[in-house]
Design a protein that fits this description.
alpha/beta; binds NADPH dihydro-nicotinamide-adenine-dinucleotide phosphate
């Protein structure tokens, strides 16, 4: 299969190349092979993309919501029809098993296009009666040109989670994927055009962080939505603040998952597996600090170890494979260095802990037990297949320890005590919480973090507020009273 796109960028409805841009190689993480060669955007390309988005915006916003929504829903249908091919591309871009990409990437992108396409026709302001017959009405307006900047773990999903609500509200977008996974966003742009999106409404340009930085500071841009790490989020938020731009920040986490003695152990082990090893652990909301109540600690670790042996590690294109490589050599080495820190700081290695001896960037699913709160592996985001199991005794104690982190993306609890479950989630300092499950992110529900994990929310009706603003119109039905 040929993964080389027709050109590096998609601007104004067509593929565009500028070979003066720095070389950007796309590597298949399962083998280390180069599967495509692209170029980073030059200043001329950045300018062209922003002009195209700026020029297209007024006419796009002037369409009725029904018309915009129809285009988004058509794009959703096309994505679903092509799910397999898009999944093969995603698997080659990211290394994630085809077993995952066929159910969690283009399908999730299609859900966002369908959901926000469905909402587009019902986006309105409101009528606010005042005294004496006067009234106010509000007009929901698009922000203008929005910039989306993506991480490498869910490239199609991120391109759609940002693009769909932006476009539904009448904005246009310039999207910059992570340089590690640049291919699928181009397909999203192609599909939107095929579905009828006017040229310039959704543009994709490639590049390293410097390209993202130029987009964020450009005066033509009204809003920036970033999915990335906390350090990048800090920089982007600060740069956007200078131009008083709207922001959505979906950043990293070190989320707690608490397992009480009364929990269903099989379900808790399933939650811990999904929340640590899906996508080889490269999921921002992962519950990487698994607090297990002392009485069930050994039983939990035993079942976890027994079940992890069943992970089928191998060629991500094999439909039976459930655990693939890390996205890049660099990311693998970062995870390996954390594993070494875990060993050096005295955590007990239960399973895994090594690179797998084969081509590509494979790490074993790794579990440490007897992890304590101050160990590096319990404090820093690893973004790899490394689970830390910590012991606890009381609810009060675990609540304090679970919240003792700068992050606040997600948190979960496994218990069969109904009131305790709700008490615990009420106490969590996190934007996205789970009771007796973990890591779901349906488009209907708000997703995002508290504390250093971000600002704003993606998905759900709330995303609309982050891609539009209200104009308030006061209407007097009476004479204007003035003091003189
Ligand atoms: P990075 O923060 O390194 O990069 C994110 C994106 O920002 C990339 O496209 C990157 O470009 C770009 N970028 C880097 N520097 C700048 C800058 N100064 N100005 C503008 N853009 C810039 O994150 P990763 O790609 O390594 O992704 C992993 C991180 O993303 C993890 O911390 C993870 O938790 C988080 N994440 C959060 C999610 C959420 O929804 N909360 C979901 C998924 C991931 P380039 O890659 O080309 O350098």
């Amino acid at each position: 299969m040929n993964f080389q796109p027709r050109a590096s960028h998609f601007i104004d409805g067509e593929y565009v190349e500028d070979a003066n841009g720095a070389a950007l190689e796309v590597i298949y993480p399962a083998t280390g092979e180069v599967i495509a060669r692209l170029h980073s955007a030059t200043p001329a390309i950045i300018d062209k993309a922003l002009n195209s988005a700026k020029n297209a915006q007024a006419a796009w916003a002037a369409l009725s919501g029904t018309e915009r929504g129809r285009i988004l829903r058509r794009a959703s249908d096309i994505m679903r029809e092509r799910n397999y091919d898009l999944s093969v591309l995603e698997t080659h871009d990211t290394g994630k098993p085809i077993q995952e990409t066929t159910v969690a990437d283009a399908t999730s992108g299609a859900d966002a296009l369908e959901y926000f396409g469905g909402l587009a026709a019902s986006l309105t302001g409101e009528h606010i009666p005042l005294g004496g017959g006067d009234f106010v009405y509000t007009i929901r307006e698009a922000l203008g040109v929005c910039v989306g900047i993506g991480a490498w773990n869910y490239p199609t999903q991120i391109a759609c989670w940002k693009g769909a609500p932006a476009l539904a509200c009448g904005n246009t977008m310039v999207f910059k994927p992570s340089e590690t996974t640049p291919l699928s966003a181009l397909k999203v742009a192609e599909i939107l055009v095929e579905a009828g999106a006017p040229k310039g409404v959704y543009n994709v340009i490639q590049g390293y962080g410097d390209v993202g930085a130029s987009l964020v500071t450009d005066p033509r841009v009204a809003k920036v939505s970033l999915t990335g790490s906390v350090p990048t989020g800090r920089k982007v938020y600060a740069a956007a603040a200078d131009g008083m731009k709207h922001v959505t920040m979906e950043l990293g986490g070190k989320s707690p998952m608490i397992v009480f003695e009364d929990a269903d152990i099989e379900n808790a082990v399933s939650g811990a597996i999904l929340g640590n090893f899906y996508s080889s652990g490269q999921v921002c909301s992962n519950g990487t600090r698994v607090f297990v109540q002392k009485g069930i600690k050994e039983a939990f670790l035993k079942r976890l170890s027994e079940r992890l042996v069943n992970a089928k590690i191998g060629d991500p294109m094999d439909e039976d494979v459930s655990f693939g490589p890390m996205v890049s050599k660099n990311q693998m080495n970062i995870a390996l260095s954390y594993i070494e820190k875990g060993k050096a700081e005295g955590a007990r290695l239960i399973i895994g802990g090594e690179r797998i001896d084969r081509d590509g960037y494979y790490l074993q699913p790794t579990v440490f037990a007897d992890v304590t709160d101050n160990m590096t592996i319990a404090r820093e985001e690893i973004f790899g297949p490394v689970m830390s199991v910590l012991d606890f005794e009381t609810e009060e104690e675990v609540m304090t320890r679970a919240n003792d982190t700068e992050f606040g993306l997600a948190a979960g609890v496994f218990t069969n005590d109904l009131t305790r479950a709700h008490r615990i989630v009420a106490g969590f300092e996190a934007g996205t919480c789970y009771i007796n499950t973990y890591n779901l992110a349906p488009v209907e529900a708000p997703f995002g973090g508290s504390k250093m994990s971000g600002v704003g929310r993606e998905n759900s009706k709330l995303a609309i507020n982050h891609f539009s603003e209200m104009k308030t119109v006061y209407v007097s039905m009476n004479d204007v009273e003035a003091p003189y």
